[in-house]
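Have a close read of the entry that follows and walk me through the local backbone shapes. See right below:
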Amino acid sequence: MLPPRRFPAISDTGLLIGRVAIGAMFTAHGWKKFSDEGHSEVAAGFDQLGIPLPEISAYFTTYVELVGGIALIIGLLVPVVALLHAVNMAGAFYYVHMDKGFFLDKGGYEYVMVLFGASLLLAGTGAGRFSLDGLLWGRRRGENAPERESVPA
């Protein structure tokens, strides 16, 4: 028997730590776009990079990172928010990092790849019990969930 199945608090704690770390990173990047750069500067940069619909893409990226990052931290609507982050990182990979190789120090995609994978992981697993999603919807899910095996004494 795997430890997370025997001790669900282990996986829920891991999801909490991962969500907060990833959410803090996305929030910081979104806040930078929102407060330091501003919409027109982000849109102009996206236009130079050849990103389609740079005005709309700038809004999408800024608010998915900022509001979505906060949502990950508190654990609200995590599967949806994480999927939006994955879409955002797929765009960053394709339009910005793909042709620069793997390593971050050369502008490569290693960081974007990790964030894409982590976002898909959260989209698939959800927020865990230690989240607003767990508080709001955890009981309903628990009613239909199979009983966990008890740990032998």
In short: The two ends are 15 Å apart (CA to CA). DSSP finds seven helices and no strands in the chain. The CA atoms of residues 4 and 77 lie 23 Å apart. The chain has a mean pLDDT of 90.
